[in-house]
Amino acid sequence: MTAAKEPSVSVLLDPNWAAGSLVEDVRRGLSQHPRTLPPKWLYDNRGSELFDEITRLPEYYPFNAEHAILTEHADEIVTASGATTLVELGSGTSEKTRLLLDAFVSSGQLTRFAPVDVSEQTLRDAADQIAHRYPGLEVAAVVGDFTLHLAHLPKGGRRMVAFLGGTIGNLYLEERRAFLGALADLLEPGDSLLLGTDLVKSADRLIAAYNDGAGVTDEFIRNSLVVLNRELGADFDPGAFSYIPFWDPHMERMDMRLRSEAPQRVTISGADMVLDLSVGEEIRVEISTKFRVSKIASELEQAGFGVTRVWTDPDNEFALTLATKP
Ligand code: SAH
Ligand code: TRP
Question: For tag attachment on the chain, is the N or C end more exposed, with fewer CB atoms within 10 Å?
Fold first, then answer.
């Protein structure tokens, strides 16, 4: 038996990243209306654990739907991509990605896997597990921010960049444009993007997926305040807020908010901010945009990709699109 190679881990986030970038995000976001927090701050160690629990909730259909597509079509995806390097953005535990890796390994074409995530411990654990499961595969993990560090992704060979879980829907339209445009500019002709997007469906089903009966999503969203308390010495009382997820039919997105249940003053010393919140005032913690297949294609084409193929699950809940740089 060949011994597994240890994964390499490059850390692109500097040690002050949390402090520095968080302060700017918090200053900007919390002075807007509605007040907003950027989603990458949801994924500290506890947040990543809670997200992992979310993926196992019966109400959270996106995980199962994307899993079903990959189970059915991983071989075709691998063949269509012709990739020798798989890069994964926002990889988390890379659980579903194993379906792709299995198909890549049986095709014999893959030499390198490069998962990228801001959540360092989750990434390290996933990279170790994958290196042991696929001996012979070079695992080159990157602790980085996909809105800042695309230029540092591994080069050479034919690459497929997987961006799964519907995470692109957590970006605003302008951010999606900037992200997809930057990615298209960086890729070489023949490289591709495998993009997972959740599709528009009934409000009931959507709301249930973001408001589970066990309260895991509520804790996940509320954990953002715990992150601010720890990283910026803020004094949020997470218990003084209630979790309000709603479907915005005009923007076709879920909007996840925390509502202040009492008038309160919050001091965020690390950001030099004092926040006076009135009763009922809301902080938006996350959006999750839902797509139609035509909208996915037009955003990809505007960014400079060509749509090679779209796969959906049997219930048409989720789509995986393979887009290629011409
Ligand atoms: N791809 C996995 C996880 C999705 S959850 C799945 O499909 O189940 C979103 C992941 O993206 C988390 O692991 C989070 O830490 C990561 N993430 C969020 N914002 C990020 C950013 N700006 N840069 C890099 N990773 C980010
Ligand atoms: N990318 C996931 C999604 O949009 C992130 C997520 C899952 C999430 N559950 C959540 C974000 C609950 C906020 C609240 O589905």
Answer: N
